[in-house]
Design brief:
Layout lengths: L5 E2 L1 H8 L3 H10 L6 E2 L5 E4 H22 L1
Antiparallel strand pairs: 1-3, 2-3
Helix pairs in contact: 1-2
Length: 69
């Protein structure tokens, strides 16, 4: 889709206020899929996918905190 917003790792991290390493962790764990590469070879992610990964991992963290309380 042409009107989609694409983010680099750094932009994705800034968008959801997490560390760059967290974004790489989401990729390793399968929460976030690399959907392309820019002209410099940097990984690109769909804006919506980044938001969904952040929401999914935040919800999971809430469940862990609730169970451990």
């Amino acid at each position: 889709m042409e009107d989609e917003t694409w983010l680099t790792v750094k932009e994705a991290a800034l968008f959801v206020a997490v560390d760059v390493q967290t974004v790489y962790s989401w990729v390793r764990r399968g929460h976030l899929k690399v959907t392309g590469l820019d002209d410099r070879g940097r990984k690109l992610f769909r804006h919506l996918d980044v938001a969904q990964a952040e929401l999914a991992t935040r919800a999971k963290a809430q469940r862990v905190l609730t169970i451990g309380a």
